[in-house]
Design a protein that fits this description.
alpha/beta, 8-stranded parallel sheet, 12 strands, 11% strand, globular
Amino acid sequence: MHPLYRQRRGGVLLHPTSLPGPLPRGQICHDAYRFIDFLQQTGVTIWQMLPLGPTHTDGSPYLALSAHAGNPELISLDWLKDRKLLDNPAQVTDFVQHRQQLEQAWEQFNKRKPRALFAAYEAFVARQSHWLDDYSLFMSIRESQQHRSWTEWPAPLRDRQTAALQQSRTELAERIDFQCFCQFVVSQQWHDLKQYANAHDVKLLGDIPIYVSLDSADIWAQRGLFTLDAEGHPQQIAGVPPDYFSKTGQLWGNPLYRWDIMRQDNFLWWRQRMQTQLALFDVVRIDHFRGLRAFWAVPANAETAMEGHWVEAPGDELLEALHENFPELPLVAEDLGMITEDVHALRKKFGLPGMKILQFAFDGAPNNHYLPHQHEFESLVYTGTHDNDTTLSWYRQLDEKSRRYVREYLGLNADTTMPWPLIRSALASVSCLAVIPMQDFLELGSENRMNTPGTLEGNWQWRFDWEQLPADLTAKLHHLLHLYGRL
C-alpha cells in the first residue's frame, strides 16, 4: 500500500468549483487557501475533489475537453494582478468578463515578457508539448468553428489532414498561444495551492474518469485509440447495467478504448495521463475501476444501457505498466456497482484501497459489505459521494422500516437527527481514510446535492458560503477526529 494509507486520516469531499467567490463557480483564489486553513484547524488531512479539466457547457467534470488540461475558469485574477499582468482587474461576475480579463493579461504578458515568468512559461510549453500542442490547436479550431464538436468540422480538420492543420496553426497562432498561456497560469496557480496544502499537512486527492469525452482534444488527436468509425462517430459507447441509480442502467456515451492498440506501446496514453494527474495530486481515484477488468459495451444506437454486454479489459497489464513508471502507485479504486471477485482480486493485487458508502449499507442484510462491521482497513469510507443525495435528505426519504434499521444498527433513539450519527460511524470505521462530503458537515438537504446520475439539468452547481459553517464545527470535527484516532 502507498504510505499515505498506513495511518488513519479524515477527509472532506469538495470540488473547487463549490468554493465561495464572486463568479458562478469557485476558483483557485483566496477562498481555496482559507479552506485549507480551515482543514488544518479541524485536523482533516485529505481534500478530495472531482476532475479539474475544462468542461463543456453542462459543467460536468467527468466529460472534459481534455484529459490533461486544467479548467481556465479556475484561474484567479488576483494572481495575475500580483504579477503585474493586470493593472486593476475589474470586478467580474461572469465567465465572459473573466475571459476578457485573461485576454488582457495575455496581451500584457506578451508585451512585457517578464523574464522569470516568461522563462517558466516556455519551459512549461516544452515540457507539456506531448498533450499541449494538440490541445491548444484543438481549442483554437473549436473556437473558430463556433464551439461545435470536432465531428462536425470540415473533413480536412476533422480528419487532421496535414495541410489543413498547418494552415490552422498559421492562421490561429495567437489563439494557440493564448490557450497555452491559460494552461500555464492554471498550472502555476494549482501547484502553488498544492504546495500550500502540503505545507499545512493537507494532501490532495484527485479523480480520473475512466473514459474521456468524444468532443475532446484527446480523441480528436488520437482517434485510433478509440472505437470510432471513419467519420469519428462511436461504434460502441460506455455505460453500466441497471444499478442503484437507474433501473435501465446508465448510458454514458463515451467512446470505448481500443485496448489492442494501446497494448502496442505499453499503454503510453495512460502512462502520460497518470503522470499529468500525479503532478496535480498526492493521490488519485480511478473512477469506475471495474471497467479495467471488464467494461459494459453498448451499441452506439441503443436507447438504454440494458442493450449492452460485458467485455474483458487488460487491467492487469495496464496497472503493471503504471506500476513500473510509478512504483508507489497512489491510487484509489472506485469499486462501486456490480463488482465481481476478479475485480476485487485486481484491486488487491496492486494494493489499492476500495470504497465503502454508508448510504448503500442499510438494506437489512447483516452481510452487506458497506456496513461498518464489514469494512477493512484498506478502504475509504464515505457517508455518500458526489453522486449521492446529502445524508440528511437520504435519511428523510427512507421508509420507516429502513429508518428503524438505521437507528437500531447505529444505536440511536427516534429523536436523533442526521447527518452526524452517520458521520460518526464513518469516522469510527476501521477504514484507513474517512471522507465526508462538505454538505454533510454543513447539515444540508437535497437541494444541495452535487449531481443526480441520469439527469442533465441542475448538476455541478452547488456552492457553500462561509456563513453556513456552524460556529462550533471546527472544534467539533477536531474532537471527533481525535476521538476516533484520525488526527
